[in-house]
Write a structure and sequence with these properties.
One of its GO terms (biological process) is base-excision repair, AP site formation. By secondary structure, this protein is α+β, with helices and mostly antiparallel strands. The chain contains 15 helices and seven strands.
């Protein structure tokens, strides 16, 4: 069981930095446990489980790992935790952004270096509610993943590319995943090596690589590369809620479109995803006027 420690370059918030990797409550591949973060994933060296704990008194973050992918995970621990991130490159142009950064100085952009791990759940989130997507991810990992190495029995590692490709159509249906999304995932895993190469590209090239696969558009690519690359400018466009939240937080007006959101965030060119993340951390959202969108379940059809 190898271990490693990392010294953050300044204030550090472990939970808020890594919580973007969690796909809903009950995610079999991710857990927050007290002051610890647990993550199970499939690395190029095989399955691995990582336990990370902040030690504020010592000014360090400590980690240990299990499984064939343990050394790979620990070698890339600083990148995962945001060592190469440069939060000071953002200049706050709005009071809300300035205040959010002041209140959350330890939030950095995580960089996993893994593409399919973020791409597949992002495809599952296309055009459905978050609860539907989280349920699908949870069921698919429980049924088709494998037990994660290490002491936490409930954690699961997602299937490898071949494992995803072998999931029968009725299992996708049972998980509530329609043919459009499952087909996009199958096309991606058939090109798994090409997809994973995007982890070593810049944002523009990585976006082109991902969106060359039918069924993967700019929204899915941005959601993936925010996590894979820790890309500060990978702004999500085409989201149902984000433009409305950004617009309301910055102007107090409702009904902001993608085009208007891009105009509002133009002063943050190069850092637009970071700016959006800080705005979301402010907690300012437009009051709800309509009932929550109903959760569908195609598995019952």
């Amino acid at each position: 069981m190898p271990a490693r420690s990392w010294v953050p370059p300044g204030p550090y918030d472990l939970h808020r930095t890594l919580c973007v990797l969690q796909r809903g409550p009950g995610d079999p591949a991710f857990a927050l446990r007290g002051d610890e973060v647990w993550r199970a994933c499939r690395t190029p060296e095989g399955p691995g489980t990582l336990r990370i704990a902040a030690r504020p008194a010592a000014g360090t973050v400590e980690a240990e790992a299990w499984g064939p992918g343990a050394d790979w995970l620990l070698d890339r621990l600083p990148e995962l935790l945001g060592e190469s991130d440069e939060p000071d490159r953002l200049t706050a142009r709005h009071r809300i952004v300035h205040e959010a950064r002041r209140r959350h100085p330890g939030v950095r952009l995580a960089r996993t270096g893994l593409v399919l791990e973020s791409l597949i759940p992002s495809v599952l989130e296309q055009k459905v509610t978050a609860d539907e997507a989280y349920r699908a991810w949870r069921l698919l990992l429980q049924r088709h993943g494998e037990p994660a190495p290490g002491p936490w029995e409930r954690m699961r590692v997602m299937p490898d590319a071949r494992g995803w490709a072998l999931i029968p159509s009725w299992e996708w249906h049972r998980a509530g995943v329609d043919a459009k999304r499952s087909s996009a995932i199958l096309r991606a895993v058939r090109a798994a090596r090409r997809m994973e190469e995007a982890a070593g590209m810049d944002l523009a090239a990585a976006t082109r690589r991902l969106t060359a696969v039918p069924g993967i558009g700019p929204w899915t690519a941005a959601e993936t590369l925010q996590r894979t690359l820790g890309a500060p400018d990978a702004l999500t466009v085409g989201d149902l809620h984000l433009p409305k939240i950004i617009g309301y937080a910055l102007t107090g007006r409702r009904g902001t479109t993608d085009e208007q959101m891009l105009e509002l965030l133009a002063p943050y060119e190069g850092q637009r995803h970071r700016a959006a993340r800080l705005i979301l951390l402010s907690g300012i959202t437009p009051p709800r006027r309509a009932p929550r969108f109903p959760v569908g379940d195609i598995a019952r059809l």
